[in-house]
Inverse folding.
């Protein structure tokens, strides 16, 4: 049996599809798995032993290639206009993931709570249930490049990773709140994030002799290696949170405008993991993914985060 799995983006969403890949490969004898994604995310899948081929959107004669494979099943774990286009071009039946967009819209508009009590991983798994596939409950997978270079300058003592990045500003805790947290803990800290987080990382770590800012200096695989070496990860709702789950790290997840009830909370992470959010705030959630600025102007979902409680949780591990 030959199966094509489609998920174009992003880091966290692709990592969240890995149980589907693993369960298909292990539960269907001689199954051949191809994964179709954007070129920028090839590295997330290249070394996954359960994937036979990674296909990216920039490949030449793409439609001809896909048609030539004569897939038995196409599993669409993205379900957007672009993937529907490929369904039409390939003329094959697609099995599509339920994005529960209506339920999310109702929650954002404060009209009704129709959000199912089910993690997105299990919704991904439901997409392949017609094949008799069962969730093996072994969590997420992350397979870095074995040649990933070691990172110099990491603390010798057990350390905390602070993943300060996020795709949207309303998912990110302000600099002042991170500094509140750092003032209340005494463990070594390593900050990770993208190039766009470098200046925030400098501001957050300034004056803390136990903090190392690596924002903008690491590849995804190197960030994963730092996470693997850490004792604890404090992170926003972002791709690093899901990589930390795959590595079975204990996670303190900070939620701003999005909510865990959307089903994207850490999946089977390390023992002692917690979610931190400002509950009973009438404007949450204000978006299903995030925004550049708080639509209400106050940003209380992050400015009112209880960093003292976070620090108590951190200090229990050090």
């Amino acid at each position: 049996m030959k199966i094509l799995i489609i998920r174009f983006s992003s880091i966290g969403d692709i990592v969240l599809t890995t149980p589907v890949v693993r369960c298909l490969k292990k539960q269907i004898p001689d199954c051949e798995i191809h994964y179709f994604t954007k070129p920028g995310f090839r590295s997330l899948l290249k070394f996954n032993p359960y994937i036979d081929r990674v296909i990216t959107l920039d490949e030449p004669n793409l439609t001809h290639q896909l048609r030539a494979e004569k897939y038995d099943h196409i599993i669409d774990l993205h379900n957007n206009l672009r993937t529907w286009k490929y369904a039409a071009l390939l003329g094959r039946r697609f099995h599509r993931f339920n994005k529960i967009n209506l339920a999310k819209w109702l929650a954002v508009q404060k009209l009704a709570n129709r959000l199912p009590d089910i993690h997105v991983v299990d919704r991904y798994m439901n997409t392949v249930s017609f094949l008799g596939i069962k969730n093996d409950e072994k969590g997420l997978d992350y397979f870095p490049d074995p040649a990933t270079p070691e990172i110099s300058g990491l603390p010798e003592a057990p350390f905390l990773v602070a993943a300060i990045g996020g795709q949207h500003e309303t998912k990110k805790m302000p600099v002042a709140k991170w500094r509140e947290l750092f003032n209340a803990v005494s463990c070594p800290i390593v900050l990770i994030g993208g190039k766009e987080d470098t200046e925030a990382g400098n501001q957050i770590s300034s004056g803390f002799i136990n903090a190392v800012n690596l924002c903008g200096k690491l590849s995804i695989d190197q960030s994963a290696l730092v996470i693997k070496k850490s004792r604890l990860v404090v992170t926003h709702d972002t791709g690093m949170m899901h990589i930390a789950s795959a590595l079975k790290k204990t996670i303190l997840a900070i939620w701003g405008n999005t909510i865990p009830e959307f089903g994207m909370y850490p999946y089977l992470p390390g023992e002692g993991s917690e979610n931190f959010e400002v509950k009973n705030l009438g404007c949450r959630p204000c978006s299903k993914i995030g925004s550049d600025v708080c639509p209400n102007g106050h940003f209380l979902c992050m400015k009112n985060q209880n960093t003292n409680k976070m620090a108590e949780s951190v200090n229990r591990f050090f």
